[in-house]
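Appendix B, record 7
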Amino acid sequence: MIQNLISRPDISGVIFTKDKNTNSNYYEISYDYSKKTDLVTSGSFNSSLKKLVIHRSSKKIPIKFIKLIRYIKIIEKNFSNERLDLEFCIKNKSIYIFQCRPLSGPKKKVNNTYLDDVVVNLKKKYLKLQKKIPYINGHTTYLSNMSDWNPAEIIGSKPTKMSISLYSFLITNDIWAEQRANYGYKDVRPNRLMMDMSGIPYIDLRIDLNSFLPADLDNKISEKIISNCLNTIKKKPALHDKIEFQLIETCFSFNLNNKAFKFLNNKEKKIYNEKLKNLTNNILNSKNYLNTDIKKLEILQKKIEEIKKTKLSYIQKIFYLLNYCKRLGTLPFAGIARCAFVSTKILNSLEESGYLNSYDIKNFFLSINTVTKLINNTFYYSLKKKNINNFIKQYGHLRPSLYSISKQNYKDGLNVYFPKNISDIKLKKNKSFRIQKIKINKINNLFKKNKIQIEFLDLLRFSKKSIEQRELSKLIFSKAINEIFENLKRLSKEIKIDHKELEHININTIINSINELDQDKLKQILIREIKENKKKYYFTKNLKLPELIRSSNDFDFYDEINVNENYITNKSIVSEVVNFEKIKNFKLIKNKTILIENADPGYDFLFSHRIKGLITKFGGSNSHMAIRCLELEIPAIIGMGEKKFNDIKEAKKIFIDCKNSNYKVLL
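Structure tokens (predicted):
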């Protein structure tokens, strides 16, 4: 059979008629406008490639693909097969099918009727969320999985019920808003930050953006700011994971006047600027917040040890640990993190304004004594002295995926996570930081001119302290979470349920059992809940939703977003790539670039293996892994986004040029 050559088509691509991984009811169309027919199928990196996902039951289809989908349905019918892989092109509105073959992969049955019902209900839920809310600015809302507190990065894009309920209880229900209100931002309570959309966590952007407004800002100005933010993100969806960097101002900085607040008049700009300045001065005063929050975490450490020594039941211990962790752990952590963000933003604005250079900023961060260095060096000396107990005592509670009970902590998984030979570990030292006196004087004059009520050297001390304490505070409250999991394990052993099954319980079921005596025994309640939530968890894997939801149409079809990834350091490397999901022996990752979806502090053990580079699907320039890689001078691409990450998942070798913000798959 000989096929005519179709040259310079308008659109060329590949369509999968089912989800290739789950066999769920979605069309996936990879296409581009390059006028070439081989770029989509070649497997090489293609920056112009787009990916469209269409719910098969939807009656709404993008106009340019209506005819293609109609022909595809005919082909499916003729072959009596809905799982196909087809290559096509479109030229002058004519459809050309180059080839068709069965799509490889799983052929398990999916309850498409139930999937359709879930999609309909999600659309209804979203339409209700768009309505105007009393005392909250903004005419509508959008949902993002990465805009603030980064749920996709911290608990995953499709987490278990334990992870999402624990994260909600400790942070996104009210703690996040309480902290901001305490620091002088608008109080948006009782609105919650995170929505559970059929097992997929999303941040309510309208609520999130409101929480960054100064508390005493005029309502008219507030409405203009929020409306502008929502209109901007509708046009530029890639900004959804860079809310505080490119969308809304959350503190004063020295490039603030360069921002084009065209939606505000001169008087409104001046008012907004002054409110941000007052808020910033208030935060930079250590006596107001930072020192107080640090003391709360010291109290939490004592509370954890006290509870461990009591003879309370496992459930009682969990109840108290949860509430202490919330009030004395995640609340002050959120405050310390805010101090670190504000001071870092001011330092970065000094670089952008020419008062500091990139080497000043780099050397400052290298001088910071962070948890990653402490973990690495403590492990090094523990091996050297042949006394690993000291390391276990300090860091044994940490685990990859902080909110997942099924993941081993460092104590239980020591031989899995860490190298055994001291020769494989490099001792990490802090570098000294010095800055020219002439720069200090210039910046102090700038501070006085702008009425910033702190000396530059004091700002550096504040920034260093807040960044170090942010990491230490995370280390402390994660002890409480580990102790919660240890008590859950003991409880599961007592009632004879595998502790890994507890991934599928809602933490509120445990909390409520303190004050509620159900007619059924707790074991029966948990077994029923595990069965139901496990069923929902595995079904959620069949559901495909975009990273950013801007319209009810996004539940019918969406284009995957091309996000602007964050490059860390100014280095360039060529190295082999290892997908974290496929690592069976961590000894083999030395000098490799690790590809990982999301990474919290529990993944810091990776750095003890002398990795060469890091690439993450989720995360921002201020995320945990970004800071880690910056301080350790490891070239990294943080927050690559769903589309680009999936494109390079099978790569064998990659070139990363951080200085020029570029990468290329070599093999």
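Remarks on this record: The CA atoms of residues 51 and 560 lie 6 Å apart. The two ends are 33 Å apart (CA to CA).
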